[in-house]
Write a structure and sequence with these properties.
- The structure is a homotrimer of 164-residue chains.
- With 164 residues, chain A is of the alpha/beta class.
- Chain A is built from six helices and five strands, in the order βαβαααβαβαβ.
- In chain A, helix 1 packs parallel to helix 4.
- Chain A is globular, with a radius of gyration of 16 Å.
- Chain A starts with 7 loop residues before the first strand and ends with a strand.
- The N terminus of chain A is likely disordered.
- Chains in contact: A-B, A-C, B-C.
- Chains A and B meet through helix 2, helix 5, helix 6 and strand 5 of A and helix 1, helix 3 and strand 5 of B.
């Protein structure tokens, strides 16, 4: 933990909306490109952004409520809805089309870029337990930790954001 | 105001959604347990988390619009809806069930823990005026103050979050 | 960029909801009144708060999807909806009525106050491109910049908030 004061940033990604998660990754990759150490914490709905899709291989204990919740949540970053004007996915599709016309990075590309830039990605243990999301469902390279890890990082960081 | 720089945290709770308010209290109690001084500011929809329920005893001046608003808002922390998948309260109920199976603290328990750990809770005066929420409707131990109190605290704090 | 450490604040306004944007401006103007240098970054839905209304004079290149998006978004600060209980504008109208009875500032008044207090307002270039919002559609005095400008400001600021 730690790092020279003023040189690091933390971003809590609580939301699972495409537009908000993208904003988090744009800030994270920009800060990393500018030499900052960046840690992203994914909690609650934000965990969806780290799911890798496909059949849930994870065999952590889940009851029927958690299974139902797991089915209702987006299975991977590419499936996230917009926070507004989603219109059953049409809004998200339009945004993706426009962004591809402009040659902006997609969310999966931003996530990959963040990993290459060594942005730390931490999934919240408690949220995973509550939502029945197993470690095996998440993309590689993600750490699992709790709120104390977050607070320990944030109190020495120059930028701390909560994206809800 | 003040406190040694880098040792305190502020959290604005703007949202009145169960999941978001819980996230605020989890961070607040974790930071307090790690020795930080924590101040939470409740504004707009977030005020609902501080209402103690029961008949509104507060007799502050209210017009019919404010009374209507007061009736539409949740009456206490235990009644808050989820920000997503609430499904008329079923989603919130499911989350509570899962969390109780996991022995996680409920929101009322987290609030009590925060008070025992001397987390300062401040209700925004202006929001109370706008929404017609009286001091008497709020749980004990809550202070009432304005934006200047917030800014004074935040500019000397190591962690500042806005939960919207 | 820069400014003496601990004396400045940044606020990202990602949301286009009346209540959230107002919260951002209340904090911004309070901090400015207390002597802090304040920079607000408007991104995604938050850009709506900076549109000046009237026919879109901006003649930046836009395809039909961007034109449609531009029509669906609020045309100016006074038209923003509430994030909750908006009820087709009735909720926003009620809030405005109550706030005017209490002699609180309206959002357009807060924006004007912020400009008089030299709060810097920056519109996110990438969001403008994605949403097809032209410089000419925005109120005067707004700068246009990108995420690197934000990170450069935020890492030297005492308060950094993300209002989503």
């Amino acid at each position: 933990m730690g790092s020279e004061e003023g040189k690091s940033a933390t971003i809590i990604v609580f939301s699972g909306a495409l537009d908000k998660v993208m904003a988090g990754f744009i800030i994270a990759t920009t800060a990393a490109a500018m030499g900052m150490e960046v840690t992203m914490f994914f909690t609650f709905w934000g965990l969806s952004a780290l799911r890798k899709g496909g059949p849930a291989e994870g065999e952590c204990a889940r009851n029927w409520m958690q299974k139902m919740l797991g089915m209702m949540l987006p299975k991977r970053a590419a499936d996230l809805p917009l926070s507004q004007l989603n219109m059953g996915g049409m809004g998200a599709g339009m945004l993706k089309t426009i962004m591809s016309q402009k040659s902006f990075s997609t969310l999966p590309e931003l996530i990959e870029a963040a990993q290459e830039m060594e942005v730390r990605m931490i999934a919240c243990q408690m949220s995973m337990d509550a939502m029945g999301i197993c470690r095996e469902e998440l993309i590689d390279g993600v750490e699992v930790a709790g709120a104390a890890t977050y607070v320990g990082e944030a109190r020495d960081s120059a930028i701390n954001l909560f994206i809800s």
